[in-house]
Amino acid sequence: MLTKIRRQLARDGLVMWRVHAMVPPRVDYSLTPIGEQLGESVCGAWLWVEAHMDEMRRARRKYDKARQRSKKAASRSRAKAHCRIAGERRRRRDQQFAGR
Questions:
Q1: CA separation for the pair 90, 98 (Å, rounded)
Q2: Cα distances (angstroms) measured from residue 44 to each of 30, 39, 40, 77
Q3: Could you report the per-residue pLDDT of 33-70, keeping only the tens digit for each?
């Protein structure tokens, strides 16, 4: 998998590597100029994430709590609907037997 990614990055012109014919084998990797520019852009995004990580964690906890509450409410609604449907079936069945 790592080899595949390395080849894709090289194909896109982001990295290059040089294999040295020696024992044990040695490979030097480096970013191309365009790879360095991408690194600078990614660095900006990384700094933004670091600056806002606490806010994101709070938002995730809030979202997860709301989602859990809605799942519980939906589960209760399904249980109530199931009971209502079962009760209706029971009444119909009782009516059928009472009519015989």
A1: 12
A2: 20, 9, 7, 46
A3: 999 999 888 888 889 999 999 999 999 999 999 988 88
Q: What is the DSSP string of 47-98?
A: HHHHHHHHHHHHHHHHHHHHHHHHHHHHHHHHHHHHHHHHHHHHHHHHHHHH
CB distance 44 to 28 below 8 Å: no
Q: Give dist(CA 16, CA 9) in Å, integer.
A: 8
The backbone torsions φ and ψ at residue 15, rounded to the nearest 5 degrees and listed phi first, read -135, 160
pTM of the model: 0.46
